[in-house]
Specification:
The chain has 621 residues and is mainly alpha-helical. The chain has two domains: 364 residues, Glycosyltransferase (Alpha/alpha barrel), CATH 1.50.10.20; 233 residues, Alpha/alpha barrel (Glycosyltransferase), CATH 1.50.10.20. Helices cover 46% and strands 4% of the residues. The chain is built from 23 helices and seven strands. It has a three-stranded antiparallel sheet, with no helix packed on it. One of its GO terms (molecular function) is intramolecular transferase activity. This is Sporulenol synthase. It holds the Pfam family SQHop_cyclase_N. Pathway: Secondary metabolite biosynthesis; hopanoid biosynthesis.
Length: 621
């Protein structure tokens, strides 16, 4: 087994290295089903680019993902997703697909069977309203004048978490301006409004001019240099349409710049042509995240930090550190910026997970005296983001005010909040531990005393232990779902000083052992995220197996049969050319709406897991 493992590890390392780009990053595709292609096609039609050459290839990608039933799905074991099916159908219709086509008829039946247009997600409704297919009255939004842009006010935009904040002003502008593009009559979706669900006839009051002007200023101030908003497809689409609602023309340089920015999110599978036969639209890039994970995997595998590829990647990460104050400052006053964001084109919205991941990847260089000030700046920012309850949130500090869901549609009530989550809190503890911050050594950030750091860790540990479910698992917000959260919790608690024999860790390992599949692997459905209870997948996945394997290794001293079985699964399923095949999305974006297939995951996580096993049990393999 040891020899096989060495070969698999070597091939996986080479596979990762083959993905390094000219700027030093490790480039992988972050896939969000055909949702992103459908949104892009609809946007191009609404913004006046209906003849854009990318529409045809994007529509081809959409068609390829339609199920035999006529539905489109967010993940393979889902029967149908109403919102995705509606947007995919509309994108094809706008692009010339006749309603009479058999596959379009099949899609219509699926849409009506699931309740029609009025049962779609809020985001889908916003796009459909902007296309004149639904009245704006079907989208419950608060009066624009009620949402203050002054962070000192009791109800203000900065109480909303960053991903919602970058979308909300655009939705408010579009809604209050009643913006709707006039499309040809043959493009109507009126036949897909279910007879039992008719839109209400409600007028929306026009807001005061100052509120509209503040919304406009908010958008313009947050446009990224590449023309996107936070590097998000959805935010950029809505902001561009909002600018049109405010009077900007399609030919305006800002609109053109936003379109150009979205083109930068395209993935071409045909390197010989600019617009090949297989084109995909990313919802966002995951370049910073993929680069830090790739560096960690290669370091765990033993690649020297002085290797040119590693130094190049480290320089890339340093170049992406965010050193400007932005929205997060209002809930964390007095904190010097220094975090990292998820996407390569995001310069204003750092997040906790990407920051801790970058710090872990850069820590070996910091120990050599390289980029010490940058590293400590990032560590201080990370520590400052702890919530009052002891946990950490993904984006903002103490962004969990109970009144916020009152203003949000049902499907977005969770997205306006940014509560502490077990996986993020655990991963912070892991990062603080493995980078020496939890130890009284010279490697601590200089602006925070050891006593304060120790207090932060104890509070986080107590909060995390309180979040364990009765069956021994923890919920994971950003990976699918309980496997991800449980492994993160085990690793974080171990670094925080919790012993392997602690009841919480033993219960966690027992739970992992119970859900292990017969082939030795692990597999969990995206339905877990929606139902908030563990739902097994019928097949194992490489990334989830790797997570479980690392969790079991962290909580035991022995090379147990479950660990051997998980290692065997990864060795047996490794590809000849390196890495593992995985088509199932194991990342979560928006519960029930966005699930992510990271193309880096089937390589970096199994490589890390096998290297952990080799380092810990090498002589016993």
């Amino acid at each position: 087994m040891a020899h096989r493992m060495d070969i698999v590890i070597e091939k996986a390392m080479l596979r990762i290295l083959s993905h390094q780009q000219a700027d030093g990053s490790f480039g992988y595709w972050c896939e969000v089903t055909p949702m992103s292609e459908a949104v892009m096609v609809i946007f191009l039609h609404l913004i006046g680019e209906s003849q854009h050459p990318v529409i045809g290839p994007l529509c081809a990608s959409i068609r390829k993902r339609q199920q035999e039933t006529g539905a489109w799905t967010l993940y393979p074991d889902q029967t149908a997703d109403l919102s995705l099916t509606t947007l995919a159908y509309f994108a094809l219709l706008l692009s010339g697909e006749p309603k009479q086509a058999p596959r379009m008829r099949d899609a219509e039946r699926i849409i009506l069977h699931h309740g029609g247009l009025l049962q779609t997600s809020t985001f889908a409704k916003v796009l459909l309203a902007a296309a004149g297919q639904l009245p704006w009255s079907v989208i419950p939004v608060p009066p624009l004048s009620l949402i203050s842009f002054d962070p000192s006010k009791p109800v203000n935009l900065f109480d909303v978490t960053a991903p919602a904040r970058i979308h909300l002003p655009s939705i408010l502008i579009l809604s209050h301006r009643q913006y709707a593009v006039r499309l040809p009559s043959e493009m109507t979706l009126a036949h897909l409004v279910h007879p039992e669900h008719q839109p209400p006839n409600i007028s929306i009051a026009y807001p005061n001019p100052s509120a509209m002007e503040q919304s406009k200023s908010f958008l313009l101030e947050r446009m990224e240099p590449d023309g996107t908003w936070a590097g998000y497809l959805s935010a950029t689409v809505l902001a561009s349409l909002a600018l049109r609602a405010l009077g900007f023309q399609s030919t305006d340089k800002l609109i053109k710049k936003s379109i150009h920015g979205l083109m930068g999110l395209l993935v071409m599978n045909s390197p010989q042509t600019k617009v090949g036969s297989s084109v995909h639209q990313q919802f966002f890039t995951s370049t910073v995240w993929d680069t830090s994970l790739s560096m960690q995997a290669l370091q765990t595998a033993g690649l020297s930090i002085f290797h040119p590829a590693m130094q190049h990647a480290a320089s890339y990460l340093i170049s992406k550190q965010q050193t400007r104050l932005s929205d997060w400052q209002y809930n964390t006053p007095g904190t010097v910026p220094g975090g990292w964001g998820f996407s390569s084109d995001n310069t204003l919205y750092p997040d906790v997970d990407d920051t801790l991941s970058a710090l872990k990847a850069l820590y070996p260089y910091k120990r050599q005296g390289w980029w010490r000030s940058e590293w400590e700046r990032g560590a201080n920012w990370l520590l400052a983001m702890q919530n009052d309850d002891g946990g950490w949130s993904p984006f903002d500090r103490n962004c969990n005010k109970p009144y916020l869901p009152l203003f949000a549609p049902d499907d977005l009530k969770d997205t306006v909040l940014d509560p502490s989550t077990p996986d993020i809190t655990a991963r912070v503890l892991d990062a603080l531990g493995c980078t020496g911050i939890l130890k009284s050594t010279r490697h601590r950030p200089l602006t925070v005393t050891y006593a304060k750091i120790s207090n932060k860790a104890e509070r986080a540990k107590a909060w995390l232990l309180s979040q364990q479910h009765p069956n021994g698992s923890w919920f994971g917000r950003w990976g699918i779902t309980y496997i991800y959260g449980t492994t993160a919790a085990i690793q974080g608690l171990r670094w925080a000083g919790v012993s392997r024999g602690h009841t919480a860790l033993q219960r966690a390992v027992s739970w992992l052992t119970e859900i292990q599949r017969g082939d030795g692997g692990f597999g969990e459905s995206c339905q877990s995220d929606e139902q908030k209870t563990y739902v097994p997948l019928r097949t194992s996945t490489a990334s989830q197996t790797a997570w479980a394997l690392m969790g079991m290794c962290s909580a035991t001293r022995e090379l147990t049969p479950p660990i051997r079985k998980a290692v065997g699964y990864l060795l047996d399923t490794a590809c000849e050319d390196g890495g593992w095949q995985e088509v199932y999305p194991t990342g979560s974006g928006v519960t029930g709406q966005v699930y992510l297939r990271y193309h880096s995951y089937p390589v970096v996580w199994p490589l890390m897991a096998l290297c952990v096993v080799r380092r810990k049990f090498g002589s016993e393999l």
